[in-house]
Design brief:
Number of domains: 1
Shape: globular
Oligomer: single chain
Radius of gyration: 14 Å
Structural class: mainly alpha
Strand content: under 5%
Number of strands: 0
Helix content: 55-70%
Number of helices: 7
C-alpha cells in the first residue's frame, strides 16, 4: 500500500476516534503535530509528515463508544482520496479545496467541503498538479 493510501486510511480512522471534529479541523490538528515542537500550517506539511502525525494522534486517542458516527465525514475523506491530484501535497491541496468554499480548512463545514470536492474536480486537479 502506498503512502497516499495509508494517509487517507489513517485520516478515516481518526474520523471515528475524534467524532467531535469536522474533517477540516481534524486535518489541521494532525498538521500541528507533524513537526514538533513548532506547529506548522497544513500547507507546509509533507504527506509523510501528515501520515506520521496521524498515526501518532491515533495512538493517543481514547476509544469511542460510538464509532462511525458520521457517514458524511467518511464520505469527505473518501472523496478527498479519490480526487487528490497525483503531484499535489495533500495539505496544500485540501486547504485550496476549502478556500473554494470561501472558508479556511479549520472552519469549513463537512457539507461545504464535500460540495467543493464534488464540484469541478478536473479544474481543481489541473490547477494544483504543479504544486511542489
Amino acid at each position: 500500500m502506498n503512502e497516499r493510501s495509508q494517509l487517507i486510511q489513517a485520516l478515516s480512522r481518526l474520523v471515528d476516534k475524534f467524532p467531535e471534529e469536522r474533517v477540516g479541523q481534524l486535518i489541521v490538528n494532525v498538521a500541528t503535530l507533524s513537526r514538533p515542537p513548532t506547529p506548522i500550517r497544513t500547507t507546509e506539511a509533507t504527506d509523510h509528515e501528515l501520515y506520521e502525525a496521524a498515526i501518532q494522534r491515533e495512538s493517543f486517542a481514547e476509544p469511542q463508544q460510538h464509532a462511525r458516527l458520521s457517514p458524511l465525514r467518511h464520505e469527505v475523506i473518501r472523496l478527498a482520496g479519490e480526487r487528490w491530484p497525483q503531484a499535489a501535497s495533500f495539505g496544500r491541496w485540501i486547504s485550496d479545496v476549502a478556500k473554494q468554499t470561501g472558508s479556511t480548512l479549520i472552519h469549513v463545514s463537512d457539507e461545504d467541503l464535500q460540495g467543493a470536492l464534488l464540484s469541478n474536480p478536473e479544474k481543481r486537479a489541473s490547477r494544483n498538479d504543479s504544486l511542489p
